[in-house]
């Protein structure tokens, strides 16, 4: 996919960095697609701190998906050093725009930015154990299930933690 200063052009869509004025669109997409919702300041915090890894997908100028990431500093394997790890906090694509490669393009843009811009060495995410389409996408992108978090979601559903190197 060609890109131009943070904009990725896909098959009928573009992926670009989120701007402050896009946040109401991102919040709308989150609220109509996911049961986990966040207050506005949560989105602002991620935009302010990791805005180059926060992307919006558009089709014909309409916001149809987003990915919100952050970078965390964690103890390395030897416990003598710290390393940066990317965290996919939230990703969503509106119902009528799924299965077009938008989610995959959002994931790829986010992973590239977390690695190239923020220096992350790996990335992880949580996903509902029942969300087979998302799990298949993450596995296609090289993620592996590393553990289960019992009752992670507010409705009591378990989550897989999935991770991959960058």
What does this structure look like?
The protein starts with a strand and ends with a strand. It is α+β, with helices and mostly antiparallel strands and 166 residues long. Strands 1-2-3-4-5-6-7-9-8 form a nine-stranded mixed β-sheet, sandwiched between helices. The longest helix is centred in the middle third of the chain and has 15 residues, at 102-116. It has four helices and nine strands, in the order E-E-E-H-H-E-E-E-H-E-H-E-E. The protein has a domain at 8-121: Gcn5-related N-acetyltransferase (GNAT) (Aminopeptidase, 3-Layer(aba) Sandwich). The model is unreliable at 1-5 (pLDDT under 50). Helix content is 28%, strand content 37%.
């Amino acid at each position: 996919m060609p890109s131009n200063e943070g904009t990725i052009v896909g098959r009928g869509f573009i992926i670009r960095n989120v701007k402050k004025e896009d946040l109401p669109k991102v919040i709308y997409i989150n609220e109509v697609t996911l049961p986990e919702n966040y207050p506005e300041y949560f989105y602002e915090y991620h935009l302010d701190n990791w805005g180059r890894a926060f992307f919006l997908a558009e089709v014909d100028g309409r916001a149809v998906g987003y990915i919100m990431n952050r970078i965390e500093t964690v103890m390395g394997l030897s416990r003598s050093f710290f390393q940066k790890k990317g965290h996919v906090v939230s990703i969503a694509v509106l119902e009528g725009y799924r299965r077009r490669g938008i989610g995959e393009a959002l994931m790829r843009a986010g992973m590239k930015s977390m690695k190239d811009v923020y220096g992350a060495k790996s990335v992880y995410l949580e996903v509902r154990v029942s969300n087979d389409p998302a799990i298949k996408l993450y596995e296609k992108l090289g993620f592996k299930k590393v553990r289960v978090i019992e009752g992670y979601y507010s409705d009591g559903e378990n989550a897989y933690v999935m991770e991959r190197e960058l």
